[in-house]
Amino acid sequence: MLALLGPVSKCEVFPSLRRRHSKVHRMTKRVCYVHIGPHKTGTKAIQWFLKEHRTELLKYGYFVPESGNIHGGHHAIARIFCGKDVPDHEQSLAARFAQTIREMSCETVVISSEALDALLRNSEYAKSFFNRLKELNLEPKLVVFPRNQSQSMNSRYTEVVKSFSRSEAFEAFVQAEIHHPSFRYSYWIGLADAFDAELIPRPFNKETLVRGVVPEFLLAIGINSSQFGGAEVRCNETAGPFTVNVAREVLRSVAPAGKPLKWRQAARCKQKLAAYLEQKGWTDAGYCGLSTSLARHIEKQSCSDNDAFAHSVWGRPWDEIFATDVTEAFTPNDFEMRPPDWFTARRLRRAIRKMNALAHEILSDPELAVEAPWNDVAHRSG
Asked: What are phi and psi of 31, to 5 degrees?
Protein backbone atom coordinates (compact mmCIF):
# COMPACT_ATOMS: atom_id res chain seq x y z
CA MET A 1 0.00 0.00 0.00
CA LEU A 2 2.82 2.38 0.82
CA ALA A 3 4.45 1.54 -2.48
CA LEU A 4 1.36 2.86 -4.23
CA LEU A 5 1.96 6.26 -2.73
CA GLY A 6 5.70 6.16 -3.29
CA PRO A 7 8.42 7.15 -0.80
CA VAL A 8 7.61 10.36 1.00
CA SER A 9 10.47 12.81 1.40
CA LYS A 10 9.61 15.96 3.31
CA CYS A 11 12.26 17.91 1.43
CA GLU A 12 10.88 16.81 -1.96
CA VAL A 13 7.16 16.82 -1.26
CA PHE A 14 7.09 19.87 0.97
CA PRO A 15 9.80 22.25 -0.38
CA SER A 16 8.12 25.29 1.14
CA LEU A 17 8.68 23.81 4.61
CA ARG A 18 12.43 24.39 4.26
CA ARG A 19 11.84 28.10 3.65
CA ARG A 20 9.36 28.43 6.49
CA HIS A 21 11.02 26.11 9.01
CA SER A 22 11.58 28.66 11.76
CA LYS A 23 8.18 30.30 11.25
CA VAL A 24 6.33 26.99 11.49
CA HIS A 25 8.01 26.09 14.77
CA ARG A 26 6.81 29.34 16.28
CA MET A 27 3.22 28.32 15.51
CA THR A 28 1.26 26.10 17.88
CA LYS A 29 0.84 22.51 16.65
CA ARG A 30 -2.87 21.87 16.25
CA VAL A 31 -4.97 18.85 15.40
CA CYS A 32 -6.99 18.88 12.17
CA TYR A 33 -9.80 16.34 11.97
CA VAL A 34 -10.36 15.58 8.29
CA HIS A 35 -13.70 13.88 7.65
CA ILE A 36 -13.39 12.11 4.30
CA GLY A 37 -16.77 10.39 3.98
CA PRO A 38 -17.18 8.24 2.00
CA HIS A 39 -20.27 9.21 0.00
CA LYS A 40 -23.67 8.14 1.35
CA THR A 41 -22.59 7.75 4.96
CA GLY A 42 -24.40 10.70 6.51
CA THR A 43 -21.89 13.28 5.27
CA LYS A 44 -24.45 16.01 4.65
CA ALA A 45 -25.91 15.55 8.14
CA ILE A 46 -22.43 15.94 9.64
CA GLN A 47 -21.61 18.93 7.46
CA TRP A 48 -24.91 20.64 8.23
CA PHE A 49 -24.32 20.20 11.95
CA LEU A 50 -20.80 21.65 11.71
CA LYS A 51 -22.07 24.60 9.68
CA GLU A 52 -24.95 25.39 12.03
CA HIS A 53 -22.82 25.06 15.20
CA ARG A 54 -19.64 26.84 14.10
CA THR A 55 -19.90 29.50 16.81
CA GLU A 56 -20.73 27.05 19.57
CA LEU A 57 -17.99 24.63 18.54
CA LEU A 58 -15.43 27.43 18.63
CA LYS A 59 -16.23 27.98 22.32
CA TYR A 60 -14.95 24.43 22.90
CA GLY A 61 -11.81 25.07 20.87
CA TYR A 62 -12.99 23.51 17.59
CA PHE A 63 -12.67 25.78 14.54
CA VAL A 64 -14.86 24.92 11.52
CA PRO A 65 -13.90 27.05 8.50
CA GLU A 66 -16.48 28.69 6.25
CA SER A 67 -17.34 26.35 3.43
CA GLY A 68 -19.08 28.46 0.80
CA ASN A 69 -21.40 25.46 0.44
CA ILE A 70 -25.09 25.53 1.38
CA HIS A 71 -24.78 22.19 3.17
CA GLY A 72 -21.47 23.05 4.82
CA GLY A 73 -19.13 20.69 2.98
CA HIS A 74 -15.57 21.96 2.56
CA HIS A 75 -15.28 20.74 -1.02
CA ALA A 76 -13.58 23.86 -2.39
CA ILE A 77 -10.91 23.79 0.33
CA ALA A 78 -10.36 20.07 -0.28
CA ARG A 79 -9.96 20.55 -4.04
CA ILE A 80 -7.69 23.58 -3.73
CA PHE A 81 -5.46 21.83 -1.19
CA CYS A 82 -5.24 18.88 -3.60
CA GLY A 83 -4.17 21.24 -6.40
CA LYS A 84 -7.45 21.11 -8.34
CA ASP A 85 -9.18 23.94 -10.21
CA VAL A 86 -12.28 25.56 -8.69
CA PRO A 87 -14.62 28.33 -9.92
CA ASP A 88 -13.41 31.91 -9.42
CA HIS A 89 -15.85 32.63 -6.59
CA GLU A 90 -14.36 29.72 -4.55
CA GLN A 91 -10.70 30.65 -5.04
CA SER A 92 -10.49 32.77 -1.90
CA LEU A 93 -11.87 30.13 0.50
CA ALA A 94 -8.60 28.26 1.03
CA ALA A 95 -6.63 31.50 1.39
CA ARG A 96 -9.07 32.81 4.02
CA PHE A 97 -8.91 29.48 5.82
CA ALA A 98 -5.10 29.55 5.91
CA GLN A 99 -5.02 33.18 7.07
CA THR A 100 -7.53 32.50 9.84
CA ILE A 101 -5.54 29.47 11.03
CA ARG A 102 -2.40 31.61 11.30
CA GLU A 103 -4.18 34.35 13.24
CA MET A 104 -6.42 32.46 15.69
CA SER A 105 -5.54 30.40 18.75
CA CYS A 106 -8.01 27.52 18.41
CA GLU A 107 -6.77 24.11 19.52
CA THR A 108 -8.52 21.98 16.90
CA VAL A 109 -9.67 22.36 13.28
CA VAL A 110 -12.44 20.33 11.61
CA ILE A 111 -13.01 20.04 7.86
CA SER A 112 -15.37 17.70 6.04
CA SER A 113 -15.58 16.75 2.38
CA GLU A 114 -16.57 13.42 0.86
CA ALA A 115 -14.77 14.59 -2.31
CA LEU A 116 -11.58 13.56 -0.49
CA ASP A 117 -12.68 9.92 -0.70
CA ALA A 118 -11.69 9.98 -4.38
CA LEU A 119 -9.11 12.77 -4.37
CA LEU A 120 -6.83 11.26 -1.73
CA ARG A 121 -6.61 8.01 -3.69
CA ASN A 122 -4.47 9.91 -6.20
CA SER A 123 -0.92 10.04 -4.84
CA GLU A 124 -0.15 13.51 -6.24
CA TYR A 125 -3.33 15.00 -4.83
CA ALA A 126 -2.64 13.31 -1.49
CA LYS A 127 0.87 14.76 -1.34
CA SER A 128 -0.44 18.21 -2.18
CA PHE A 129 -3.21 17.98 0.43
CA PHE A 130 -1.00 16.86 3.31
CA ASN A 131 1.64 19.36 2.24
CA ARG A 132 -0.83 22.20 2.76
CA LEU A 133 -1.80 20.88 6.19
CA LYS A 134 1.84 20.66 7.24
CA GLU A 135 2.53 24.18 6.01
CA LEU A 136 -0.21 25.31 8.39
CA ASN A 137 1.31 23.12 11.13
CA LEU A 138 -1.83 21.00 11.35
CA GLU A 139 -1.61 17.42 12.56
CA PRO A 140 -4.09 15.36 10.46
CA LYS A 141 -6.48 12.83 11.94
CA LEU A 142 -8.60 11.10 9.30
CA VAL A 143 -12.20 10.27 10.20
CA VAL A 144 -13.81 7.74 7.87
CA PHE A 145 -17.10 5.80 7.98
CA PRO A 146 -16.75 2.50 6.07
CA ARG A 147 -20.07 1.04 4.94
CA ASN A 148 -21.04 -2.43 3.82
CA GLN A 149 -20.68 -2.48 0.05
CA SER A 150 -24.17 -3.70 -0.88
CA GLN A 151 -25.97 -0.87 0.90
CA SER A 152 -23.29 1.58 -0.19
CA MET A 153 -23.61 0.66 -3.86
CA ASN A 154 -27.41 0.90 -3.77
CA SER A 155 -27.26 4.38 -2.21
CA ARG A 156 -24.54 5.59 -4.56
CA TYR A 157 -26.50 4.46 -7.60
CA THR A 158 -29.49 6.43 -6.38
CA GLU A 159 -27.32 9.52 -5.91
CA VAL A 160 -25.53 9.43 -9.28
CA VAL A 161 -28.79 8.85 -11.15
CA LYS A 162 -30.76 11.62 -9.46
CA SER A 163 -27.70 13.85 -9.94
CA PHE A 164 -27.92 13.22 -13.72
CA SER A 165 -24.44 11.67 -13.82
CA ARG A 166 -25.25 8.06 -14.81
CA SER A 167 -28.19 6.42 -16.56
CA GLU A 168 -27.36 2.72 -16.95
CA ALA A 169 -29.47 0.03 -15.30
CA PHE A 170 -28.64 -0.84 -11.70
CA GLU A 171 -27.09 -4.24 -12.43
CA ALA A 172 -24.90 -2.69 -15.15
CA PHE A 173 -23.78 -0.08 -12.62
CA VAL A 174 -22.90 -2.83 -10.13
CA GLN A 175 -20.83 -4.72 -12.69
CA ALA A 176 -18.99 -1.52 -13.65
CA GLU A 177 -18.31 -0.45 -10.05
CA ILE A 178 -17.95 -3.65 -8.06
CA HIS A 179 -14.14 -3.58 -8.21
CA HIS A 180 -13.79 0.19 -7.97
CA PRO A 181 -11.13 1.26 -5.43
CA SER A 182 -13.61 3.48 -3.59
CA PHE A 183 -15.28 0.32 -2.25
CA ARG A 184 -12.01 -0.92 -0.74
CA TYR A 185 -11.11 0.52 2.65
CA SER A 186 -7.65 -0.89 3.40
CA TYR A 187 -6.20 1.93 1.31
CA TRP A 188 -6.85 4.35 4.16
CA ILE A 189 -4.51 2.41 6.45
CA GLY A 190 -1.61 2.83 4.01
CA LEU A 191 -2.45 6.48 3.37
CA ALA A 192 -2.51 7.30 7.08
CA ASP A 193 0.81 5.52 7.60
CA ALA A 194 2.43 7.27 4.65
CA PHE A 195 1.55 10.74 5.92
CA ASP A 196 1.86 10.18 9.67
CA ALA A 197 -1.87 10.69 10.14
CA GLU A 198 -4.04 8.95 12.71
CA LEU A 199 -6.89 6.96 11.17
CA ILE A 200 -10.20 7.09 13.08
CA PRO A 201 -12.62 4.59 11.48
CA ARG A 202 -16.24 4.38 12.62
CA PRO A 203 -18.56 1.77 11.05
CA PHE A 204 -21.58 3.15 9.21
CA ASN A 205 -23.85 0.24 10.08
CA LYS A 206 -27.42 -0.21 11.27
CA GLU A 207 -26.43 0.59 14.87
CA THR A 208 -24.88 3.89 13.75
CA LEU A 209 -28.06 4.80 11.90
CA VAL A 210 -30.09 4.15 15.05
CA ARG A 211 -27.75 6.18 17.29
CA GLY A 212 -27.27 8.89 14.69
CA VAL A 213 -24.18 9.55 12.60
CA VAL A 214 -23.69 13.07 14.00
CA PRO A 215 -23.27 11.94 17.64
CA GLU A 216 -20.97 9.18 16.37
CA PHE A 217 -18.85 11.70 14.47
CA LEU A 218 -18.69 14.06 17.45
CA LEU A 219 -17.55 11.18 19.65
CA ALA A 220 -14.81 10.40 17.11
CA ILE A 221 -13.43 13.93 17.42
CA GLY A 222 -13.70 14.01 21.22
CA ILE A 223 -17.01 15.78 21.80
CA ASN A 224 -20.00 14.62 23.84
CA SER A 225 -23.06 15.27 21.69
CA SER A 226 -25.18 16.00 24.78
CA GLN A 227 -23.45 19.39 24.93
CA PHE A 228 -25.23 20.42 21.74
CA GLY A 229 -28.82 20.78 20.67
CA GLY A 230 -29.57 19.44 17.20
CA ALA A 231 -27.03 16.62 17.29
CA GLU A 232 -29.84 14.21 16.45
CA VAL A 233 -29.76 15.31 12.77
CA ARG A 234 -30.79 12.33 10.69
CA CYS A 235 -29.37 11.12 7.39
CA ASN A 236 -31.32 11.96 4.25
CA GLU A 237 -33.42 9.11 2.92
CA THR A 238 -32.42 7.88 -0.50
CA ALA A 239 -34.65 8.88 -3.39
CA GLY A 240 -37.31 6.41 -4.44
CA PRO A 241 -37.93 4.42 -7.64
CA PHE A 242 -40.11 7.15 -9.19
CA THR A 243 -37.38 9.79 -8.87
CA VAL A 244 -34.71 7.40 -10.11
CA ASN A 245 -36.72 6.37 -13.16
CA VAL A 246 -37.53 9.96 -14.19
CA ALA A 247 -33.91 11.11 -13.91
CA ARG A 248 -32.60 8.02 -15.68
CA GLU A 249 -35.01 8.30 -18.62
CA VAL A 250 -34.44 12.03 -19.03
CA LEU A 251 -30.65 11.66 -19.08
CA ARG A 252 -30.94 8.84 -21.62
CA SER A 253 -33.05 11.14 -23.77
CA VAL A 254 -30.92 14.29 -23.64
CA ALA A 255 -27.57 12.49 -23.72
CA PRO A 256 -28.28 9.42 -25.88
CA ALA A 257 -24.64 8.95 -26.87
CA GLY A 258 -23.64 8.71 -23.22
CA LYS A 259 -21.80 12.02 -23.26
CA PRO A 260 -21.88 13.34 -19.67
CA LEU A 261 -23.50 16.62 -18.82
CA LYS A 262 -21.40 19.44 -17.49
CA TRP A 263 -21.40 19.73 -13.71
CA ARG A 264 -23.51 22.92 -13.73
CA GLN A 265 -25.98 21.38 -16.17
CA ALA A 266 -26.36 18.24 -14.08
CA ALA A 267 -26.71 20.24 -10.86
CA ARG A 268 -29.44 22.40 -12.41
CA CYS A 269 -31.31 19.34 -13.70
CA LYS A 270 -31.17 17.78 -10.23
CA GLN A 271 -32.48 20.99 -8.68
CA LYS A 272 -35.33 21.29 -11.19
CA LEU A 273 -36.36 17.65 -10.76
CA ALA A 274 -36.50 17.96 -6.97
CA ALA A 275 -38.55 21.17 -7.20
CA TYR A 276 -40.96 19.69 -9.74
CA LEU A 277 -41.58 16.49 -7.80
CA GLU A 278 -42.10 18.44 -4.58
CA GLN A 279 -44.54 20.79 -6.29
CA LYS A 280 -46.58 17.86 -7.63
CA GLY A 281 -46.37 15.93 -4.36
CA TRP A 282 -44.63 13.06 -6.12
CA THR A 283 -41.46 12.94 -4.04
CA ASP A 284 -40.61 9.40 -2.97
CA ALA A 285 -37.92 7.53 -1.05
CA GLY A 286 -36.44 4.08 -0.51
CA TYR A 287 -35.09 3.02 -3.91
CA CYS A 288 -33.77 -0.54 -3.99
CA GLY A 289 -32.06 -2.13 -6.96
CA LEU A 290 -30.70 -5.00 -4.89
CA SER A 291 -31.93 -8.54 -4.66
CA THR A 292 -30.67 -10.65 -1.77
CA SER A 293 -28.58 -12.79 -4.10
CA LEU A 294 -26.98 -9.74 -5.75
CA ALA A 295 -26.19 -8.25 -2.34
CA ARG A 296 -24.41 -11.45 -1.26
CA HIS A 297 -22.48 -11.46 -4.55
CA ILE A 298 -21.28 -7.88 -4.00
CA GLU A 299 -20.21 -8.69 -0.45
CA LYS A 300 -18.31 -11.77 -1.57
CA GLN A 301 -16.18 -9.65 -3.91
CA SER A 302 -15.18 -7.39 -1.01
CA CYS A 303 -14.82 -9.88 1.84
CA SER A 304 -11.03 -10.29 1.72
CA ASP A 305 -10.29 -6.54 1.87
CA ASN A 306 -13.09 -6.01 4.39
CA ASP A 307 -11.72 -8.58 6.81
CA ALA A 308 -8.16 -7.29 6.48
CA PHE A 309 -9.36 -3.77 7.23
CA ALA A 310 -11.67 -4.73 10.11
CA HIS A 311 -9.08 -6.91 11.85
CA SER A 312 -6.46 -4.16 11.48
CA VAL A 313 -8.53 -1.25 12.84
CA TRP A 314 -11.09 -2.93 15.12
CA GLY A 315 -9.52 -6.31 15.91
CA ARG A 316 -12.74 -8.07 14.86
CA PRO A 317 -14.08 -9.60 11.62
CA TRP A 318 -16.14 -7.44 9.26
CA ASP A 319 -19.18 -9.73 9.51
CA GLU A 320 -19.26 -9.16 13.26
CA ILE A 321 -19.11 -5.35 12.97
CA PHE A 322 -21.74 -5.31 10.17
CA ALA A 323 -23.75 -8.33 11.35
CA THR A 324 -27.20 -6.89 10.54
CA ASP A 325 -26.03 -5.44 7.21
CA VAL A 326 -24.50 -8.62 5.77
CA THR A 327 -27.64 -10.65 6.53
CA GLU A 328 -30.18 -8.07 5.29
CA ALA A 329 -32.68 -9.35 2.71
CA PHE A 330 -33.66 -7.21 -0.30
CA THR A 331 -36.51 -6.99 -2.79
CA PRO A 332 -35.89 -4.65 -5.73
CA ASN A 333 -38.46 -1.92 -6.49
CA ASP A 334 -36.72 -0.48 -9.57
CA PHE A 335 -39.36 0.07 -12.28
CA GLU A 336 -37.14 -1.69 -14.85
CA MET A 337 -37.33 -4.81 -12.68
CA ARG A 338 -40.84 -4.41 -11.27
CA PRO A 339 -43.05 -2.29 -13.59
CA PRO A 340 -45.30 0.22 -11.80
CA ASP A 341 -49.10 0.12 -11.75
CA TRP A 342 -50.95 2.00 -14.54
CA PHE A 343 -51.65 5.08 -12.38
CA THR A 344 -47.97 5.46 -11.40
CA ALA A 345 -46.93 4.79 -15.01
CA ARG A 346 -49.18 7.64 -16.19
CA ARG A 347 -47.64 10.03 -13.68
CA LEU A 348 -44.23 8.82 -14.72
CA ARG A 349 -44.84 9.70 -18.39
CA ARG A 350 -46.04 13.18 -17.40
CA ALA A 351 -42.98 13.77 -15.23
CA ILE A 352 -40.58 12.57 -17.93
CA ARG A 353 -42.18 14.85 -20.58
CA LYS A 354 -41.95 17.86 -18.27
CA MET A 355 -38.37 17.18 -17.23
CA ASN A 356 -37.29 16.50 -20.82
CA ALA A 357 -38.46 19.99 -21.76
CA LEU A 358 -36.69 21.54 -18.76
CA ALA A 359 -33.51 19.59 -19.46
CA HIS A 360 -33.36 20.81 -23.07
CA GLU A 361 -33.69 24.40 -21.81
CA ILE A 362 -30.86 23.81 -19.35
CA LEU A 363 -28.59 22.31 -22.00
CA SER A 364 -29.15 25.31 -24.26
CA ASP A 365 -27.90 27.77 -21.61
CA PRO A 366 -24.26 28.63 -22.50
CA GLU A 367 -23.46 29.76 -18.94
CA LEU A 368 -24.03 26.22 -17.71
CA ALA A 369 -21.87 24.67 -20.44
CA VAL A 370 -18.63 26.49 -19.63
CA GLU A 371 -15.55 24.55 -20.74
CA ALA A 372 -13.46 24.46 -17.57
CA PRO A 373 -11.94 21.66 -15.47
CA TRP A 374 -14.13 22.56 -12.49
CA ASN A 375 -17.24 22.16 -14.69
CA ASP A 376 -16.29 18.61 -15.70
CA VAL A 377 -17.87 15.96 -13.46
CA ALA A 378 -15.06 13.43 -13.91
CA HIS A 379 -12.36 16.02 -13.20
CA ARG A 380 -14.12 17.22 -10.05
CA SER A 381 -14.33 13.71 -8.62
CA GLY A 382 -10.61 13.15 -9.04
From this structure: -80, 140
